[in-house]
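Notes to self after the call with IL:
- keep both proteins in one doc
- input above output, always
- annotate only the second one for now

Protein 1:
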Amino acid sequence: MSREDPDVIDSVAKAFQLLQAFSADRPAMTVSEASAATGFSRATARRILLTLERLGFAETDDRRFRLTAGVLRLGYGYLAALPFWEHAQPRMRALADELRESCSMATLDGPEIVYVVRVPASRSMTITLNVGSRLPAYPTSMGRVLLAALPEPELKSYLDTTELKRLTSATITDPARLRAELRRVADRGFAVVDGEREEGIRSAAAPVRGAGGRTLAALNVSVNAARVSLEELHERFVPRLLETARGISSDIERLH
């Protein structure tokens, strides 16, 4: 167990750290590469990789290791436990069909949002996102809804430790400005972001709440700026988005 925390098993923590070292940029690794990516010794990285292989979470060609579809069981356990999983999809599909735009739901994981439900638009978009995709929270509408719901100590920690990179000319990178925007989001109950993460993409998001009004997730609609004006996003899309988010929230309350 950890010398710093007797309730943490070091070997388990290291296994998950190594799992997270795999990515789109690093889909396969040798023992040496895994060691360099995690800071573990080669012996430790080798034992973890071989354990993952024995458990069916990794495979190897005797030199490079890559993850298998078995790791999806870990993520599916989380998704299956979400109280809105089954109820959200029909409402989201109806909204996406009505507006003819993509509709997504995400939760907050550290400084990022993670997509947990995704209903793509029938027409193509310039971005491709799926369940499990991650984006920084600060320049996204869903991220701002989720950040606005954080208790003050957690929000302060986020603003103190997160690098607010300029992704486009519109990205808010000043912590004070971002905090002010988050207060505005909390006050009006939704967020609108116009080209802050990617130029030409606008989105609106609303909170999905559980028992006691706690924000569990964020629901959004994304549009192409050339097709939908900011005025139309506010006047036509936001009311329907809020109505759908309230419907999903009511479904969740009935489950309890």
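Protein 2 (the one to annotate):
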Amino acid sequence: MNNLLFITHQTEKYNYLDSVEIALKGGCLHIQLRMKGELPDAIERIALCAKELCNQYKAKLYINDHVEICKNIKAEGVHLGKSDMSPIDARKILGDNFIIGATANTFEDICRFKNEGVDYIGLGPFRFTTTKKNLSPILGLSGYQNIIQQCKEAKIQLPLVAIGGITINDIPYIIKMGMHGIALSSSILTSENPIEETKKIITCINKYKI
């Protein structure tokens, strides 16, 4: 997964679908619907609407955590946290035509998920973020550099997406060191003009992609 992955986030100003539409209007083609703490029925209702929006913009929708919802609404894929269903079990349910991503914090996590057949890794957190509880240890630039080097030495070529408290000023350093993409939420939705901020972020990522 290259470029920008937008992760939905509800704020006082925007609901989940607002945030999806903002990212799409800004040119983002990869949307992860993340609705922590919501009931599955509510998530599926929002997911169906989000899928319709993504179809209009020819974008891909990924469902956070909920494998069955991903299958029911025919999203492009699912993203699994470390405490969610295993990728192996998710693949049994979804088959080979869905994308499966997973959250990793260490090189050992990446090795395990590679063996379990994931398609990409969300690697983080880069720094502290208020959108997640029970954070794993902060990685920062040096952590990313070490893990990227370990992946090269082990000939692991899974796409790595940086996640966790990232701002547009971090992007040049993260992309130049070899990360495949950036996942963002708050830095877009808290900006003065979220649609324009999304455009700026995508332009920045493309400028520094190797």
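Annotation: The chain is about 45% helix and 15% strand. Residues 3-208 form a domain with the TIM Barrel fold (CATH 3.20.20.70).
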